[in-house]
Design goal:
Length: 153
């Protein structure tokens, strides 16, 4: 009879999960009695009691206060002039003549649609008649010495 018991066939109703494989799910937030004290939230601490804002460093001086501040002021009304030296004018227009800011933009000396100022770096023998362009005192003196003129209107 003992030999017959060894040869028993495994049946569906004999199958069982391995010990420890099936655990009851934790019913979070249902009080201590349901599963044991902390409702799945771990042990003590600030984050267990309430939420703190992002970036909070536990009372230490926070990063955003430790970093240096941006100082100063930028006027939204400041005019940024594009500068052209007399040497550049002499190179682009060797014969001189009447020039406007648009002529300088077409020649590639400046960008169009922005105010232009001529500076006095370099020398010229050509007579330039500049209109709609600002000029430094040294540039104005050099242009007028060569027989030219500057008007800002």
């Amino acid at each position: 009879m003992a030999k017959q018991e060894e040869n028993t066939i495994l049946q569906m109703h004999d199958l069982r999960p391995a010990p420890g494989a099936k655990k009851d799910r934790i019913r979070v937030g249902r009080g201590e009695g349901s599963k044991g004290k902390t409702s799945g939230r771990g042990d003590k601490g600030t984050l267990k009691r309430y939420q703190v804002r992002p970036g909070f460093e536990g009372g230490q001086l926070p990063l955003y206060m430790r970093l240096p501040k941006l100082r100063g002021f930028k006027s939204p009304f400041k005019k940024e002039y594009q500068v052209v030296n007399i040497a550049t004018l002499d190179k682009l227009f060797p014969k001189g003549g009447k020039l406007t800011a648009e002529d300088l933009a077409r020649a590639g000396a400046v960008r169009s649609g922005e105010p232009v100022k001529v500076l006095g770096d370099g020398e010229t023998k050509s007579a330039f008649t500049l209109t709609g362009v600002k000029a430094s005192a040294s540039a104005r003196a050099k242009i007028e010495a060569a027989g030219g003129s500057v008007s800002e209107d």
